[in-house]
Amino acid sequence: MTQNWSFRLDLDLRDSLDRRLRPDALVVQEDRNLVMGGQAILDLDSEDDLDSAYLAGRDHRPIPLGQFLLLRERANMPYCTYQAVVHDFELEPTCRPGDVRRSLTGIVGDAAGRGLQTLASEPLGEWRGRGLNVEEVVDAFDSAILESSLVLDVPFRLILLLDGMDQLEEVSHLLRSRVLARASRSFRTVSDNAAVVEVRSEERRFHFRFVPGTLSGYLVTRLDVLA
User: Fold this and answer.
1) Cα separation of 105 and 215, whole Å?
2) Nearest CA-CA partner of 135 in 185, 170, 159, 182
3) Phi/psi class of residue 69: alpha, beta or left (left: φ > 0; alpha: ψ in -120 to 50)?
4) How far is Cα 143 from Cα 146, in angstroms, rounded to an integer?
5) Fewest 10 Å CB contacts: which of 8, 27, 109, 187?
């Protein structure tokens, strides 16, 4: 039986944010050395004992790679912000695809649990020529979406913000290539003017719908378990 559920991935330009695009939350990427867990300021004095110092230091440690931090709405921003901890600029390479996948999967699950329905995200892992290349970013996002699709039970939308039409076209092509490469069988039909590709993962069937020749993402629907 088909479930009333879907995961929609859209591509858009970065400059559309705050003009015609107002998501429930924005996902930005951060260096782990700049994102601290617990309290942001290490508050110790000479009267603190060793146990207090240890606990304060533990809470002040950087958030591990592959995690995230949620910042509440601010006066000048109508949505909250997720900081995806996917870089460590003291290392080379600064980012790994697995850290992007884990962070994005965690963020999607957290956002859905809070009743948020639309996320807009930077291309996590790519930063001024450092970190991941475009293909690795697409692979990480595609993997995170499939992993999230196994457990989400509410409609959800993710918008990937890109710089310029050239990058948008490239990412759109790469996304389609990944979906077709994962197809469980030669199953490409047309439904409501959209090509449909079936993918199987962990005893689940998914239908990916996209319109050939257009610059867009895809719509994922989860079907019944495999026979």
Assistant:
1) 24
2) 170
3) beta
4) 5
5) 187
Q: How many CB atoms lie within 10 A of CB 154?
A: 13
Least-confidence region, from 5-19, 36-50, 59-73: 36-50
Concatenate the DSSP letters of all residues of 73-95 into one string: -BTTBSSEEEEEEEE-TTSSSS-
Q: Tally the residues of the chain.
A: 227
User: Nearest CA to 10 among 161, 211, 203?
Assistant: 161
Q: Give, in degrees to the nearest 5, the angle at Cα 226 between 224 and 227.
A: 110
Query: Which pLDDT score is estimated for 96?
Result: 93
DSSP string, 136-159: HHHHHHHHHHHHHHTT--S-EEEE
Residue 151 · residue 109 · CB < 8 Å = yes
Residues 6 or more apart from 189 whose CB is under 8 A from it?
A: 195, 196
Q: Which of 35, 122, 138, 39 is nearest to 85 (CA)?
A: 35
Cα separation, 141 vs 107, in Å, equals 12
Instruction: Look at residue 113 in the predicted model and tell me its pLDDT.
Output: 93
- Paired tokens of 98: 């697995």
Check residue 51 and give its pLDDT.
55
- Model confidence pLDDT, tens digit, residues 153-174: 899 999 999 999 999 999 999 9
Alpha carbons 187 and 119: distance in angstroms, whole number: 30
Contact at 8 Å (CB) between 121 and 160? yes
Task: Please tell me the distance from the alpha carbon of residue 29 to that of residue 21, in angstroms, as a whole number.
Answer: 19
